[in-house]
Amino acid sequence: MNSIKIIIADDHSLVVKGLQLLLQQVDWIEVIDIAGDGMELLDILGKKTPDLVLLDINMPGLNGLETARHIRQRYASIKLLILSTYNEEHLIEKAKQLGVNGYLLKNCEREDLLQSIRLVMNGQTTFPYRFQKEPVALGMEENGIKQYNLTKRETEIIQFLKNGFTNQQISATLYLSIYTVETHRKNIMQKLGLKKPIALMRFIIENKI
Fold first, then answer.
1. Considering just the CA atoms, what is the radius of gyration of the chain in Å?
2. pLDDT recorded at residue 145
């Protein structure tokens, strides 16, 4: 299996060093260069062709979104995965419009990053998913489900299941591994005292979650 060639574009040296250290431990990834800003990245791309660019938004000179626009115009085959501290809807939507393949927050777990890289390289997209928070929270409280002490992630996964998502789709949308999604489902069923997957769907319907 050929290694996935990655360029990191970020102006924060500590972030870059952390990413380098993390990715160097993965045998199927090769970091081929580092860029401190958008212009430097475009210059590097004139000489090297990565499979994927890990791209920060807030960089001096040419920011990440503008850089993404230039890359899409010149290098359509390069995958773009934004890694940012900004969890703002308009930035995520802008990234989608520019043809970015994925958007991940910098406070993510190691496995989240690696799973996102896998998904993007397999031709999928991965972006933060947002449910309408208030109606969900109200429904959970009204139906007395709070007594089961489900975590925020578990209640989120229940909403995905309600909307007909498969484990694979949940994995791709939340940039979690399949194993993590399956573990969450097992924990949900254990807390609700259910034995079979069909019983979970019946519980969701009967309780109007």
1. 19
2. 63
- Rounded to whole angstroms, the Cα distance separating 86 from 98 reads 17
pLDDT at residue 67 tops 90: yes
With cut-offs at 50, 70 and 90, classify the pLDDT of residue 209. Answer: low
**Banded pLDDT at 117 (limits 50, 70, 90):** very high
Edge-to-edge strands, sheet with 29-35 = 29-35, 4-9, 52-55, 79-84, 102-105
CATH code for the part of the protein at 4-121: 3.40.50.2300
Q: Where are the alpha helices (DSSP H) in 106-206?
A: 110-121, 133-142, 152-162, 167-174, 178-192, 197-206
Residues 8 and 34: beta-carbon distance below 8 Å: yes
Start and end residues for every CATH 3.40.50.2300 domain found in the chain: 4-121
Which residues on adjacent β-strands are paired with residue 103? Answer: 82
